[in-house]
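User: Good morning. I'm curious how FAD-MDL72527 adduct would be positioned relative to this chain. Could you predict the structure with it bound?
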Amino acid sequence: PGRVGGGRVVGAGLAGLGAAQRLSSSRAFPHLRLLESTGRAGGRVCSQRFGSEVVEMGAHWIHGPSKENPVFKLASDYGLLDEEAMSEENQQIEVGGHPFLPTVFYSNAGRVLNPELGEGVRNLFSTLLDQTCEFLHMLQVSVPSVGEYLRKEIAEQVKEWTDDDETKWLKLAILNTYFKLECCVCGTHSMDHVALGPFGEYAMLPGLDCTFPGGYGGLPDCLLTSLPKESVVFHKPVTAVRWGGSYREESQEGRTFPVQVECEDGERFLADHVIVTVPLGFLKEHHETFIDPPLPPQKADAIRRLGFGTNNKIFLEFEQPFWPPDCQLIKVVWEDESPLVEAGTDLQACWFRKLTCFLVLQPPERYGHVLCGFIAGKESEYMETLSDAEVLTALTDVIRRLAGNPHLAPPKKVLRSQWHSAPYTRGSYSYVAVGSSGDDIDALAQPLPEDAADPWPLQVLFAGEATHRTFYSTTHGALLSGWREADRLLSLYDTSESHQHKPQL
Ligand code: 6YU
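Assistant: Good morning! Here's the predicted structure, ligand included:
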């Protein structure tokens, strides 16, 4: 009874798992298959052992953990969050995406900077960043990028500063640290690559960002467990999605399918519908061969125009902390840098300067003395090409400079993410780059065939964080996009009783 369709989902990140969970709970898709290239579920949610503890190589926080956030909702329902995170009070805190942590500013000259100076610069930077919302939906902007806007404003403000020269230089140096931090937040090499007009379209939810005490990976694990065991196929990289065809399954006489999903090992899956959730970085590299016939120009252009950069983490474990006990965030300031002066481009000599801050993993009773450094952009991609020993040597030198102690014991252990080299990700997350807009995100999310009157509708659907216009770059954006595409499919099956195409499997 009822109509059934041959459904495939490519990619077992949160978008793919969310879509698969929704489809598998419907009788319309009894033979659903979720094809994942790697040997694990979660994608860019990736909790990994570091000594006796678990650290996050990918997503770290639930951004805006409150009722409208589906990741928060699911994680609460699965019992994966602690009480503080779930409290009403926590859900109501509004920080505009920039939660405050007790911070110490260390400079490369081995000194701790005046906290008030740091706080003042932080306020200035966040005020300027908030001002970017004014350009939302403006057809003409005076400068194309967030970076250029911020620098123009800063150049104006500097003229009014009455501080002594040293304070002025320090303020600029601290501002430069905030530029690097924002590169991590946006997953870009430079804020000059981030489009100004659409910047305010990214939406923030209320709630003080929280983490998963047992690891973010608990969430994809729970979703995975809820799926029929045979529906998930690991180590199954898909090489091509051929659509608009007429593929006949040998064992099922008379039944043809419009889509054929081809895998690296030669296996083929026929389908009525496939939801593609591969990262934008993968699509940028492979879309010309991955989707056949090729994507319509509007979609291919969107893939080319939208940004997908790299933000990596470097975990360092110390025998003893060099930071004070109440410090939860170490900001790294290079006193000779300024956002108004072009940065050096010698990656080999300077890559480590892009590292903007270290989170102190909390609580220390649990983690010991572990720092999590953040580094974005080309320097981050260069870091991926180095060995652990080379990274450790470079960062030992940085930390000795910060601490003003050339004999400080090197970290005991290092672990870093390498998202740019990951062949099925090719970066960290998406952003709206100069030359693109939210319309490109929507274009990317449009299913194929584009003609809604096609007798075989919704052959290829697109989900994944980069397809969510206001929550791109987040786990909730990913999950919502997966649900969106599952619902799109399910509504086809709900409403097409009279439809001439009657798929069955
Ligand atoms: C969040 C956070 N966070 C840090 C770092 C990273 C990310 N994010 P997936 O890639 O998960 O799944 C696709 C699957 O497809 C995958 O398993 C592949 O193996 C598979 N696949 C690929 N090709 C295939 C093929 N050919 N065949 C078969 N399978 C294939 N998000 O909410 N909080 O703290 C962070 C962070 C280092 C790398 C993050 C964070 C982003 C999320 O991790 C990410 O969006 C989702 O997990 C993606 O899920 P998915 O299913 O789409 O893809 C104004 C403005 C600015 C906007 N930015 C502000 C927000 C800041 C974002 N925060 C980031 C910060 C951190 C620290």
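The radius of gyration is 24 Å. The longest strand covers residues 311-318.
Let me know if you'd like a different ligand tried.
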